[in-house]
């Protein structure tokens, strides 16, 4: 009986030993390197189980394998026996399992992990984290885009785990987070030693359209293009180059954002301190056009001092022309100082003021009454514009085109480009207007014709036409019309047909209209005037004498 019990105990102990020594498939077990041959390490994992592992599985990326006979290593038991009776084991999988355990703890504690970049893949790089492979996105390699990642390959360095999923085998890491943290600490230290107004030395690190970034020894400051020089700088590359050492002044420090504003011109003398003395009002200077806009052109008087020539001060004659058609960039021009605002650092300049007013010149050389010749530049509803010397225009109003025709009719005879002659009738320098007259070329025919004729005068006219409503007559080349009712005092004689073309008739002037250039004439008025004069001279109807007697006496007196 005792023997039977001891046998049962032995069997139980034997089974227990089998269970303890037999490793479980899918787990990490310890083994011992018993041989190295044909690029493989033969490892005894216990219970008379041996397996083979490629030597490269014992090497870190970019390094030679470190393994020797007798070394104890951990391997992953994939299967207890294969077709050749050997255990199927993997050092790489063991390292991965070990690494995942370690990395999960580091991720939970938000600790840094060490790894090495060993390959480039789409969108980034792969990193060996001591057995586990992680993905490093390209945006997380550095704080700025990396053009050449060669120096970083195979280099052991810290990383921050951003995301990990063991079930899917995904790990995402960042090198940038580590750099930013270190950079923030370094920036805080450097910024703590800087003060506003301090002059420091830095190296130009990058140049943009709006300025340059200057490295002050671990922290960058922005040197804006407007703070590089007192003069206008179109692009920072005009005065700076990457890698150049420059002296700058700290203008402003933002303690919250750690942003630093720098300036170079603040270390130089401000040319505006002497502007008022060097450029008195109405003084003329030579400058260089630096910039052209829709509203004018900027002219540099000296480095750091620019003035604006407004478009209205560029030309006496070119009113609606873009400044770029009058001056060009880099052109040297003479300008006059019109106004200085030292507080706003503005100088108003004039280009046209350096040249004589063409209207003044014209007024001096072409007084009123001077005959001029020019080309018809434009035809409008109110007159003609004639090109004159000095690139200015004069206007011939409709009323000044012809003596005889209506202006609307007379203007139809002219075309753009016609060369015409006219007389200067008025020059208004302030309003920049020149009035011309074409009809005045031959003098005032009406004034010459009527001479001393005035209302009440008796003149002799010649009948030129017989109309139903009266007769047309001519006096010294001036046409007039006598209505039927003015042909005679006697209604029976108020017949146009009793006259013939060419008849000479004495008429009385009833009106002189210089504006319409017409004489008002009447035979009836002459007869009434003659009757009145006869009555006054030879008696009145009240004295008993008949009208026939009076007129008979008057006729005898005339004889």
UniProtKB/TrEMBL annotation:
GO terms for molecular function: mRNA binding; structural constituent of ribosome. It holds the Pfam family S1. SMART domains: S1. It comes from the Bacteria. Keywords: Repeat, Ribonucleoprotein, Ribosomal protein, RNA-binding. Residues 26-92, 110-176, 197-265, 282-352, 369-439, 456-524 form the S1 motif domain. InterPro entries: NA-bd_OB-fold, Ribos_protein_bS1-like, Ribosomal_bS1, Ribosomal_protein_S1-like, S1_domain. GO terms for cellular component: cytosolic small ribosomal subunit. One of its GO terms (biological process) is translation. PANTHER family: 30S RIBOSOMAL PROTEIN S1, SMALL RIBOSOMAL SUBUNIT PROTEIN BS1C. Binds mRNA; thus facilitating recognition of the initiation point. It is needed to translate mRNA with a short Shine-Dalgarno (SD) purine-rich sequence. Belongs to the bacterial ribosomal protein bS1 family. This is 30S ribosomal protein S1.
């Amino acid at each position: 009986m005792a023997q039977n019990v001891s046998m049962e105990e032995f069997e139980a102990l034997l089974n227990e030993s089998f269970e303890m020594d037999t490793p479980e498939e899918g787990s990490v077990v310890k083994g011992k390197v018993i041989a190295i041959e044909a690029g493989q390490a033969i490892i005894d994992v216990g219970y008379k189980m041996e397996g083979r592992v490629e030597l490269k599985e014992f090497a870190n990326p970019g390094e030679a394998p470190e393994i020797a006979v007798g070394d104890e290593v951990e391997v992953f038991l994939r299967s207890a026996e294969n077709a050749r009776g050997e255990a199927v084991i993997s050092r790489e999988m063991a390292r991965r399992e070990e690494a995942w355990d370690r990395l999960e703890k580091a991720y939970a504690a938000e600790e840094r992990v060490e790894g090495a970049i060993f390959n480039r893949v789409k969108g980034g790089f792969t990193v060996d984290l001591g057995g586990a492979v992680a993905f490093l996105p390209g945006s997380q390699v550095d704080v700025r885009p990396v053009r050449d990642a060669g120096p970083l390959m195979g280099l052991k360095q810290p990383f921050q785990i951003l995301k990990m999923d063991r079930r899917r085998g995904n790990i995402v890491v960042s090198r940038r987070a580590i750099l930013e943290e270190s950079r923030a600490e370094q920036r805080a230290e450097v910024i703590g030693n800087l003060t506003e107004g301090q002059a420091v030395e830095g190296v130009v690190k990058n140049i943009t359209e709006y300025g340059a970034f200057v490295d002050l020894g671990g922290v960058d400051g922005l040197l804006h293009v407007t703070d590089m020089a007192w003069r206008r700088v179109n692009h920072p590359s005009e005065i700076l180059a990457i890698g150049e050492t420059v002296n700058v002044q700290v203008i402003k420090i933002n303690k919250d954002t750690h942003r630093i504003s720098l300036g170079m011109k603040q270390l130089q003398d401000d040319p505006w301190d002497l502007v008022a003395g060097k450029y008195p009002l109405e003084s003329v200077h030579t400058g260089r056009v630096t910039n052209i806009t829709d509203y004018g052109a900027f002219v540099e008087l000296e480095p750091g001092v620019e003035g604006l020539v407004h478009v209205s001060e560029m030309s006496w004659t070119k009113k609606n022309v873009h400044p770029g058609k009058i001056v060009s960039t880099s052109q040297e021009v003479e300008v006059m100082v019109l106004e200085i605002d030292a507080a706003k650092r503005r100088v108003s300049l004039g280009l046209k003021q350096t040249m004589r007013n063409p209207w003044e010149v014209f007024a001096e050389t072409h007084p009123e009454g001077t005959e001029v010749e020019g080309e018809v530049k434009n035809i409008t509803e109110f007159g003609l514009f004639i090109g004159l010397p000095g690139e200015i225009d004069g206007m011939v109003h409709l009323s000044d085109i012809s003596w005889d025709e209506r202006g609307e009719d007379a203007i139809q005879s002219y075309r753009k480009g016609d060369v015409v002659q006219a007389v200067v009738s008025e020059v208004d320098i302030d309003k920049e207007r020149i009035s011309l007259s074409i009809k005045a070329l031959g003098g005032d025919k009406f004034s010459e014709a009527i001479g001393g004729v005035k209302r009440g005068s008796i003149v002799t006219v010649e009948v030129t036409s017989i109309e139903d409503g009266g007769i047309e007559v001519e006096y010294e080349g001036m046409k007039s019309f006598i209505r039927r009712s003015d042909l005679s005092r006697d209604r029976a004689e108020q017949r146009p047909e009793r006259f013939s073309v060419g008849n000479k008739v004495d008429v009385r002037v009833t009106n002189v209209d210089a504006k319409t250039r017409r004489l008002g004439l009447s035979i009836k008025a002459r007869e009434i005037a003659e009757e009145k004069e006869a009555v006054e001279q030879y008696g009145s109807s009240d004295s008993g004498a008949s009208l026939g007697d009076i007129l008979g006496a008057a006729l005898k007196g005339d004889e």
